[in-house]
Design brief:
With about 260 residues, the chain is α+β, with helices and mostly antiparallel strands. About 15% of the residues lie in helices and about 30% in strands. It has one domain: Roll (Hypothetical protein YwqG fold), CATH 2.30.320. It has helices spanning about 5-15, 20-25, 80-85, 105-110, 175-185, 245-250, and strands at about 1-5, 30-35, 50, 55, 65, 70, 70-75, 95-100, 120-125, 130-135, 145-155, 195-200, 215, 215-220, 220-225, 240-245, 260-265. α1 (about 5-15) runs antiparallel to α2 (about 20-25). The longest helix is centred in the first third of the chain and has 11 residues, at about 5-15.
């Protein structure tokens, strides 16, 4: 659920869910971005882009799985995003490179891989002052470079990323908190899963949670990549690729603990 005007969020939640539950949901809001291809006069946000070469520090080894290189899918310029994110970005990692195993590799390349292990993805930070363009080695695919404009939005979690203990609700009227959200926020919840987003909360159109939890609460959402015919990537049947990281790992700048999750409709 995304709001272009943060001030309207509290009112919408209270009007639809009541005073107590509405304010509890509004308190979960996070700042994030819609990533829109920078065209028609829109300026790119820093060095943020989809596709293109990676931006890595000299000497950084290109990530691979079983000898097969991963593909670069996006770069986020966190210095350009930091002003809006504020405390929700506790570190300044510079550039973040997002890699994933190319979903269109020939079958013979897949046969030797365990595509369910963590090496299928990597998130690699780089110092903007030292980063240089690095092209993907074969057989990884290089997608077209598309600079993006990061549109500032305030996001609420979709119902599947909220647990019953997060909010107070009438259990006689609703079988779970997801029922409350689906009933009260029906036209706002889970309708933008077809877009590219960064930080905030993931947008989902399925019944699976994206943000795993630990003692520090829900994981921090880093990036959401939808199917994109212009770039030439897809994630199965109405699939979306999500990158998250535990809050403690983000605070420590430990992007080796980032997790990617591909969910199909």
């Amino acid at each position: 659920m995304q709001f272009d005007e943060p001030g309207s969020l509290d009112d919408v939640c209270v009007q639809r869910l009541g005073e107590k539950a509405g304010r509890q949901l509004a308190a979960m809001a996070r700042r994030g971005f819609r990533l829109v291809v920078a065209e028609g006069g829109a300026e790119a946000t820093g060095r943020c882009r989809l596709g293109g070469p990676a931006l890595l520090e000299p000497g950084t080894v290109w990530p691979e799985l079983g000898g097969v290189p991963l593909s670069l899918h996006a770069v986020l310029d966190t210095d350009a995003l930091a002003r809006w994110l504020g405390d929700e970005l506790p570190v300044r990692p510079g550039l973040l490179n997002f890699f994933y195993l190319d979903p269109d590799l020939p079958y013979e390349e897949y046969r030797k891989l365990d595509v369910y292990q963590s090496g299928v993805w990597r998130v690699i930070p780089a110092d903007p002052a030292r980063a240089v363009a690095a092209t993907a080695p074969r057989p990884a695919r290089s997608y077209p470079a598309m600079p993006v404009h990061a549109v500032e939005v305030t996001m609420l979690p979709d119902c599947w990323d909220i647990e019953d203990d997060d909010m107070e609700f009438d259990r006689d009227d609703h079988w779970a908190v997801s029922s409350l959200i689906l009933t009260g926020m029906a036209d706002l919840d889970g309708n933008t899963a077809g877009s590219h987003c960064a930080f905030g909360w993931p947008d989902t159109s399925h019944t699976l949670p994206v943000s795993s939890r630990d003692a520090d609460g829900p994981a921090v959402h880093l990036l959401q990549l939808a199917e994109d015919t212009e770039l030439g990537w897809g994630w199965g049947d109405a699939g979306t690729l999500y990158f998250t990281i535990p809050a403690q790992a983000l605070a420590a700048g430990d992007f080796d603990r980032a997790v990617a999750q591909l969910i199909c409709g």
